[in-house]
Amino acid sequence: MSDNGGGEIGAFFSGFFIGGLIGAVTALLLAPQSGEETRKQIGEKGIELRDRADEEFKKIKEQTDATLQDVRKQSEELQRKAAESLREASTRIKSAVESMQKGEGEKAAAEVSAE
Questions:
Q1: Could you say which of 56, 64, 84, 108 would form a disulfide bridge with 96 (CB–CB 3.0 to 4.6 Å)?
Q2: pLDDT in tens, 49-74
Q3: What separation in angstroms does the CA of 110 have from each of 51, 92, 102?
Q4: What pLDDT shows up at residue 113?
C-alpha cells in the first residue's frame, strides 16, 4: 500500500457510496411500482449498501494493519542495525584513542583511516 495519507481510501469510499446511491435511486425511479414498494426497496438497498461498505472497510483495515506491522518490523530491524554499527564504530574509536595514548599515534591513525 502506498503512503498517501489515506487520500485514496477516502476517495474510494466516497465513490463507492455515491455510485451505489445513484444506482439505487435510478433503479427505483425507473421501476414501475407503488410508493410503498419503492420505500421498502430503498430501505433494502440502503441496508445492502451499508453492509457492502462495512465489508470493504474491514478489508481495508486488515490490509492497513498488515502494512503497519511490516513497517514496524522494518523499523525495528533498522534500529537494531544502526545500534550495532554505532557499537562497532565506538569500539574502533576507543581502540584508536587507546593506541594514541600509548604512543602509537601513527599506527592508530592508519587503522582508523583504513576502516
A1: 108
A2: 888 888 888 999 999 999 999 999 99
A3: 70, 12, 15
A4: 60
